[in-house]
Amino acid sequence: MTDAWSPSKRERERRGIRRRRRLQSVLVATTLTVVVFAGLGLAIVSSPGWPSVKDLFFNEFHARESFPAVRDGFWVNVKLFLICEPVILVLGLAVALARTARSAYLVPVRLLAALYTDVFRGIPTILLVVLLAFGMPALQLQGIPNSALFWAGVALVLSYGAYVAEVFRAGIDSIHPSQIASAEALALSRAQALRFVVVPQAVRRVLPPLLNDFVSLQKDTALVAAAGILDAVFAARDYGNFNFNYTPLVVVACFFIVMTVPLARFTDWLQRRYAERERAGAR
Amino acid sequence: MTDLGKKPGQPAGTPLLEVVGLRKTYGDRVVLDDVSLTVRRHDVICLIGSSGSGKSTLLRCLDLLEDVDDGVIRLDGREISDPRVDPREVRRRVGMVFQAYNLFPHLSVLDNCTLSPRRVHGLSRREAEERARDLLATFGLADHVDKHPDRLSGGQQQRVALVRALCNRPDLLLLDEITAALDPELVGEVLTIVRELAERGTTMILATHEMSFAREVATTVCFLSEGRILEQGPPAEIFSAPREERTRQFLRRVLPG
Question: Is 90 exceeded by the pLDDT of residue A230?
């Protein structure tokens, strides 16, 4: 545009008002945040039992001493998570797809998938971990790994696969039938319609609940401690029992927080990107 | 620049809505440029022009759905483009209907129509339902009161959307191409309602592609082109003897014959 527009006096006033209001809200936010956090901190620190709690849970010496053991143990949790997560995604999606299949040939698969989700969502994860980690190696099967860690991982995959399958299925069901209709109208097969039209939309939609399950899985890798596997929690408890101090447990908690936060930010970013690209102007 | 909207010879008194020098940009793109418009009570203003000429943006600015980049909007003499004005105060008095109906799919027709009267205007359930049933019946929707919107045809949905806006008894009604998403055979039933509203003296601003309708009900027709009101006047004048070449070109394209 070539017109030499410059803001009118009224518009400059308005911008001034907007700027002042923005400043005001920043000020309110900052003050309130400081007051609330200072108040919380003060309430904790001034409580009668704080000195002994501080010594028992937030002891700097023990934190430093236990750090290497916890870090090495945590590596087990990270490995478990990194290996289990992709397997769970594949298993979950496969089970969800099996449950939405309409072909007569696939009825047994469908029933099996339904049975799987019902059973494995019903069993507490910690039970599954203990049962598999102790039970499977005891069978002394040939040709498959017999370590407790492997079977603990399998237990996590089975348990979380069932959850994730249900999340995927909810996502697939939430896509409007007209999408399938228009895909089929383009002569796509049902499988192609799922693969290229329904599942991509479903995945975008279920991203937040999936993240929820991921974070939950990251934390539940700590359950393998119950099967005597030397992960971060086991290492921390080991140290704590020996030195009568719980600080290592707090250290483990910090480790887990540091691991989950980046994932949460990453999903936020993904969501925002999808929204910007696909919902422009749909206010 | 500001006297475009002023019509000398009209009786004095504050206009219901006054727009002066409105400007709206999206990044580098100027969508509305120095738009001025005066709406008096019982006026029916039709905004015409090709897609992208700024009709919808103008309506959205008037309902404060968009912040304007310059210019002033006054409702009953009070400036509503001031950032300190609560948009909800304005929207209590101004109704808007969208091209895509935007009914709430989880609520029945009746609940769609009573939501705002009950929650915003503080009517009791009985009063709100009475008012909604009355209006729905008037516009031939008595049989659909308890259905959910997706059960209805497009024309019926758009009529419900109109009733939903009317249930708030707005002083001004903004209609954003409300027939653009409808089958030609369903357009009539919606326009009939708008015509009735016009006859009852409802003040309206509507963006429309229905030229014969605009000619028939409008008190003023505004032709928008590239974000400017290029020409405005009574329909007889705009449709029969347009001043601007671009208006002529546009009308040649959209008018049959």
Answer: no
